[in-house]
Specification:
Blueprint lengths: L5 E2 L14 E2 L11 E2 L11 E2 L4 E3 L4 E2 L25 E4 L3 E4 L6 H12 L6 E4 L1 E3 L2 E3 L7 E2 L2 H11 L1 H4 L7 E6 L13 H7 L4 E6 L2 E4 L5 E5 L10 E3 L5 E3 L7 E6 L2 E7 L6 H15 L12
Parallel strand pairs: 9-13, 13-14
Antiparallel strand pairs: 1-2, 3-4, 4-5, 5-6, 7-8, 10-11, 11-12, 14-19, 15-16, 17-18, 19-20
């Protein structure tokens, strides 16, 4: 027998519409699938616990500052979904996710750059991301937050990953913002994933990875110069340039839960070249012990 647990009508920011809602006390979730925190204000649907912040739908604002506020200086640190509640929804209290990616040329640029990638000596993943994980930007968001979810994704989607051999190094390049960034002492997604995946070397950007609408990857760039919320602007010559003015960031290289070296953000990351550099790193930093024979012994 089916049981009706919830039927809700919401306004744009998540407040319940009078006379158009029903909720069973056994069902804890509401607006955008988030857990209700009704004890805060003593009324149903007046507070929602997103993963990182509490949202008050009556005023359309979060009650604390955005943990990523430094990356979005153009936006109020308390804004919900950047005030775009028609074509977007809130991603865990951190940033907006657009419902229709076609309205966002950045998404098409990321996709096109991935389709252009020809390097077969490494596994290249193109996605949105932050220091805690990665996601796509479709209406039904796929989120990868743990090493186990990441390994499951690779096992399902990558033949190269499934066919890897014991003792061989496999290089994975994450073309997704901030996957190699350490924030407030918390290890990056790439660092944590490498700690759980023996034989895997992960290369990830320490800042935003930029793409033009035409699908050209500009690489990780320092974002402190970002003032208007856009990744790029027209350069007046029919092309594009990044809005940041502080130069390239870095591609960080992780193995066994540690960052072992970095590349300049201008570098094109090739799997086979990363393997060679890892071997050189091991030879220089951890040279093999040589046992010299004495008197034929």
């Amino acid at each position: 027998m089916l049981e009706m647990r919830e039927m809700q009508g919401y306004d744009a920011f998540g407040s319940l519409l009078p006379g158009r809602n029903y909720s069973s006390s056994s069902y804890r979730f509401g607006f955008q699938g988030q857990e209700k925190d009704d004890e805060v204000h003593g009324a149903t649907g007046t507070s929602y616990a997103f993963e990182y912040r509490i949202h008050d739908p009556r005023i359309g604002r979060f009650l604390s500052i955005d943990p990523l506020a430094g990356q979005f200086p153009h936006n109020s640190p308390y804004a919900f979904s950047e005030n775009r509640v028609i074509d977007g929804f809130e991603f865990e209290g951190l940033e907006i996710v657009l419902v229709n990616p076609k309205v966002n040329p950045q998404d098409q640029g990321i996709y096109d750059a991935g389709m252009k990638e020809k390097d077969q000596s490494g596994i290249h993943i193109f996605a949105h991301g932050n220091y805690q994980g990665m996601r796509n930007d479709q209406g039904a968001v796929t989120r990868i937050r743990t090493p186990q979810e990441f390994a499951a994704l690779l096992e399902r989607e990558s033949e190269q990953y499934r066919d890897r051999k014991d003792g061989e190094t496999t290089v994975i390049v994450l073309h997704s913002c901030d996957n190699g960034r350490t924030v407030k002492g918390q290890a990056s997604f790439a660092q944590k994933a490498s700690a759980e995946m023996p034989g895997i070397v992960i290369v990830a950007p320490e800042d935003w990875d930029y793409f033009t609408p035409g699908g050209t990857e500009l690489g990780p760039l320092v974002t402190e110069g970002l003032t208007d919320g856009r990744w790029y602007t027209e350069d007046g010559q029919g092309g594009y340039k990044p809005t940041t003015t502080n130069g390239p960031a870095r591609w960080n290289v992780f193995r066994n839960g540690e960052m072992i070296f970095s590349y300049d953000g201008n570098e094109k990351i090739i799997g086979s070249e990363v393997k060679e550099d890892v071997e050189l790193f091991d030879a220089v930093v951890n040279p093999p012990v040589q046992i010299m024979a004495r008197d034929g012994q």
